[in-house]
Amino acid sequence: MTIKEVVKHPAKVLTTKTKEVEVINEEIIALLDDLYDTMIEHDGVGIAAPQIDVGLRVAIVEIGDERDILEMINPTVLETDGAEVDMEGCLSFPGLFGDVERPTYVRIEAADREGRIYELEAGGFDARAILHEIDHLDGVLFNDKITRTYTEEEIAAMYEEMEEEA
């Protein structure tokens, strides 16, 4: 388990479609652990393998009220529905935040670290985060989907407002 450097845009690995994982072995399990450590260190809610310079279809996302870790190996989007515009950021784009339209519902199929295939349905923020990370695996970056960017002052004001409401 190691904290890795987060690859920043415009690195080519971020816009390159990743390769399927053929065998889930100790290397892949170590990759999942490195993704987790790196995500936590950089205060993210998700991270994909290309963001630590690995071109494999592996990503993790914190989901649910308990912020459980969802490990996705070779994820496939089976179904989406709805649409909502909301603000996103990305570890590979420090300081960039913008509105992105994404489905409000997603159903995926993926493998876990044990090699078990599972299906998962998610909505709202969880669907957004899952789709953001799967986009990374397809070489698609959120900056290409932004319809409006936010200034640092706007972000600071939003955090201040959230703290006042808490």
TrEMBL record:
One of its GO terms (molecular function) is peptide deformylase activity. Keywords: Hydrolase, Iron, Metal-binding, Protein biosynthesis. The active site is at 133. Its EC number is 3.5.1.88. CDD domains: Pep_deformylase (cd00487). Gene3D superfamilies: Peptide deformylase (3.90.45.10). Binds 1 Fe(2+) ion. Fe cation binds at residues 90, 132, 136. It catalyses: N-terminal N-formyl-L-methionyl-[peptide] + H2O = N-terminal L-methionyl-[peptide] + formate. GO terms for biological process: translation. InterPro entries: Peptide_deformylase, Peptide_deformylase_sf. NCBIfam families: pept_deformyl, PRK00150.1-3. Removes the formyl group from the N-terminal Met of newly synthesized proteins. Requires at least a dipeptide for an efficient rate of reaction. N-terminal L-methionine is a prerequisite for activity but the enzyme has broad specificity at other positions. This is Peptide deformylase. It comes from Metalysinibacillus jejuensis.
